[in-house]
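Q: What residues go here?
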């Protein structure tokens, strides 16, 4: 008689391992005693997106990158292992042929006292239509790690800053072998993460102005994530490298190996006429982290 509950428990574990990503999320949320409203409040992900994710309605989500970010945030709240859940979500999306591409809007609680009068709201709407015929997005340049929402919003276009580097490798002359380490120096205080494709983090944190971090020469295809690429001065063996991006865009999955950076220096990206910051050449390459 004592073995029956154990057998039932084992069957439940097997069933959970074979369950879909939405079933895993729902089971973990209920086991944690949380409602979708609780998860939305803790993750700041809109309720409609969480409900679609838990229902497996991927077509109701604005993109694969969003779905991955939402599921990662969901996993953190309910105590699931992030990597397997995100991989499962991506696999299920691929099986369904992709997701929807609707707009993503960040929802914030509204204080009724802050709602403008109707006439003022109409006037503002007409002004927006006359000036732009659309909408404007305001972002703060963060010196702290970007939230999942902000990171996914920046990745919505699926445009990687690394793409020009790939084009440069095809058209540029052969680049000489790297002659020194990759050093990143903070021109201004900046948060960044350096990691390998498998997710291994080589460095994560905030660099004070003038401080540096050296990318390990043994790193395998290292990449960078930061919301302030303009605040970094990058050198390879003392050679200044063009900026990794501008202040208007968070960059992610940008290669920062010596080879990739030297290719970037040899053949700047098409249409990228942003001059290198004056601090690049003079930035201290050996400042302590």
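A:
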């Amino acid at each position: 008689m004592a073995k029956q509950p154990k057998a039932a428990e084992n069957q439940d574990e097997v069933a959970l391992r074979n369950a879909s990503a939405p079933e895993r999320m729902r089971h973990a949320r209920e086991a944690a005693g949380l409602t979708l409203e609780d998860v939305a409040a803790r993750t700041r992900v809109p309720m409609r997106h969480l409900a679609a994710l838990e229902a497996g309605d991927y077509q109701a989500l604005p993109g694969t990158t969003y779905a991955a970010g939402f599921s990662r945030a969901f996993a953190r709240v309910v105590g699931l292992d992030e990597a397997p859940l995100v991989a499962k979500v991506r696999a299920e999306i691929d099986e369904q042929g992709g997701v929807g591409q609707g707009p993503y809007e960040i929802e914030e609680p509204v204080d009724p006292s802050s709602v403008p009068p109707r006439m003022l709201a109409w006037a503002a709407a007409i002004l927006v239509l006359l000036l732009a015929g659309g909408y404007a997005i305001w972002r703060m340049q963060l010196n702290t790690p970007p939230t999942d929402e902000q990171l996914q919003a920046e990745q919505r276009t699926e445009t990687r800053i690394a793409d020009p580097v790939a084009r440069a490798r095809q058209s540029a002359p052969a680049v000489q072998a790297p002659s020194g380490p990759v050093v990143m120096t903070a021109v201004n205080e900046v948060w960044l993460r350096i990691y390998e494709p498998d997710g291994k983090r080589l460095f994560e944190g905030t660099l004070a102005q003038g401080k540096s971090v050296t990318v390990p020469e043994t790193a395998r295809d290292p990449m960078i994530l930061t919301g302030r690429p303009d605040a970094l001065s990058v050198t390879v063996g003392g050679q200044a490298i063009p900026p990794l991006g501008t202040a208007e865009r968070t960059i992610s999955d940008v290669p920062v190996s010596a080879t990739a950076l030297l290719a970037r220096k040899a053949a700047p990206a098409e249409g990228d006429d942003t001059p290198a910051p004056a601090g690049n050449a003079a930035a201290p390459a050996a400042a302590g982290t």
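A: Context that may help when evaluating the design: Residues 3-17 form the longest helix (15 residues). Residues 154-282 form one domain.
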